[in-house]
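Weekly modeling sync, notes
Attendees: S.R. (lead), two postdocs, one rotation student

Agenda item 3: backlog of single-chain predictions. S.R. asked that every request posted to the team notebook include the full sequence so nobody has to chase files. The rotation student volunteered to paste the first one in as an example of the format we agreed on. Action items at the bottom.

Example entry:
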Amino acid sequence: MPSFDVVSKLPWDEVANALNQAKRELGQRFDFKGTNASVEQTDEGFAFEASTEDRVKAAYEVLQDKLARRKVSLKHFERGTISPGPRGSAKMVVKVTEGISSEKAKEIIKLIKNSKLKVQGAIHEDTVRITGKKRDDLQAAIAELKRADLGVELQFVNFRE
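Predicted structure, as returned to the notebook:
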């Protein structure tokens, strides 16, 4: 029976390259001189730090620009609030989300059922497997999921006959 998996994965090699480019640009750009602007990768995402809130926002925009140029979806990143740091500096944490949460997986299955296609969906950890009898039904399901805006970047993998 034909099937495919719906996943939400982040290309970490492209993220690492964008992070390195952003660090280099923060060190070289004139408007960041003397602001001690920096970005570091942490367990939950990225930590931005600079002398003012304005420079933290600008550093985040630099990283967003680098990620967008490398075709990494910005839907994976959740911006936090800017908080005061030591000695009058400002900090911000950007969380990285990867995988499909159980709520979003339930939304995907509900969307598939409401589309009246002859396919079934099943949740497997952070992926959703869609199965059907015909390849055309699966392709229609992919088109339906691409049209829907679920707030999560979706990829379709393991298409099997």
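Discussion: group reviewed the output briefly. The chain is about 35% helix and 30% strand.
Action items: rotation student to repeat for the remaining queue; S.R. to check formatting next week.
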